[in-house]
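Ticket #4471: structure output looks truncated?

Reporter: J.K.
Steps to reproduce: submitted the chain below (311 residues) through the standard prediction queue, then opened the result file.
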Amino acid sequence: MPVNPLADGGSLNEEVLEKYIRAGRIAAKVRDEIGRVVREGMPLIEICETAESMIREMGGSPAFPCNISVNEVAAHYTSPPNDKRVVPEGALVKIDVGVHVNGYIADTATTVCFNPEYEGMVHAAEKALEAAIKIMHPGIMVSRVSSEIQTIIERHGFKPISNLSGHEVGRYMIHAGKSIPNVSHFSIERMRPGSVYAIEPFVTLREAVGRVEDSPEKYIFRLTKLKASLKSVEARNLLKIIEGNFRTLPFAERWLRNLYKEDDSYKRGLLELLSSKCLMAYPVFIEASRRPVAQAEHTIYVGSKEIIVLT
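Returned output as attached by the reporter:
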């Protein structure tokens, strides 16, 4: 029988909470290890594949492709097959990793800075995250957490990204339910006991626009529907492979290529699944004024009386 995720009093069932804790421990180890090995000139695909391999070796599964977002790229970049890009000199590199254990997800990120000019921005993101966690408790208003994030970022002389948010996390769902904006807003929503949230301040320079826009590049995909009038056998077979391997979690084209043993025959099916809207593609997010962005992130469990920082 399926496990009821909620125990009495708005707390997670102990078995479920233990899976979140395991996912969080793995995610934190991978984040810290990858943060230590990243260097200028390192191929981005090497960073992605190293992080994802570490997750699997530690007994977890990637909850989404490792995101390596450089400078003005804020989120959603993962290496496509045969990616030739490397970490530039003087770069600001966001590393965002997700781990799931039986669908229970931990999401965390860090920023590696190779430019002393931007170290203050990294510090501001970390301090905003720390301050948000410090005030969190069961029932706190989401708007209170958002206001704290914005206040701390601005106190350090920087600007939050207004249209990137933290988010509630569900089983096999990275973005589930509530958003946790990084700017002040009006809301009567509260953080519910028994819920899991990813808090992730994004920070840019004071003179920047402070919002992201979509790039034409899209390298991360997610299953959105299983039923469609698909014309080709390739598309129907690929849909079954995606559902069986990734369910509703995001995946990378690199992963498909590995499943197909480096054979590119999946590509026609991938295009058909996208055009039939069986899959959605995540655009790479870029800061609108092309200013650098820093990020920090933890996943937090809100219990009936306390919070646990899972990552």
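Triage note (M.O.): checked the attachment and the full token line is present. The radius of gyration is 19 Å.
Status: closed, working as intended.
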